[in-house]
Amino acid sequence: MREAMASRHANRRGQTDMHRTINGKPVAIPTRMTLGDYLESSGFPKQGLVVERNGAIVGLGEWSTTQLEDNDHVEIITFVAGG
After folding, report:
1. Domain 2-78, what fold?
2. Dihedral through CA 41, CA 47, CA 48, CA 54, nearest 10?
3. Exposure string for 20-58, b = 16+ CB within 10 A, e = fewer
4. Tens digits of pLDDT across the chain (83 residues)
5. Strands (DSSP E) along the chain, which ranges?
6. Domain extents in the chain
């Protein structure tokens, strides 16, 4: 049964999707994706962001090496200037 479920979630590269919670919403993304890759592919700017993964702040310098894991909880906060 697990094999059938995994094959249903296979993406074009043959990788299975893993489930993460991003800003309170469940998201299925490929197994091999860094936080930096996710942010870039989702159109987030590199500046003006604070990212928390599983309760810990992830610094900008760590985004490209932080591998997203199954059942991660990620919060992305964007700062907006205004008056």
Report:
1. Ubiquitin-like (UB roll) (3.10.20)
2. 50
3. bebeeeebebbeebebbbbbeeeebeeeeeebebeeeeb
4. 333 333 333 444 445 677 899 999 998 887 789 999 999 999 998 889 999 999 999 999 999 999 999 899 999 999 887 76
5. 17-22, 25-30, 49-53, 56-58, 73-78
6. 2-78
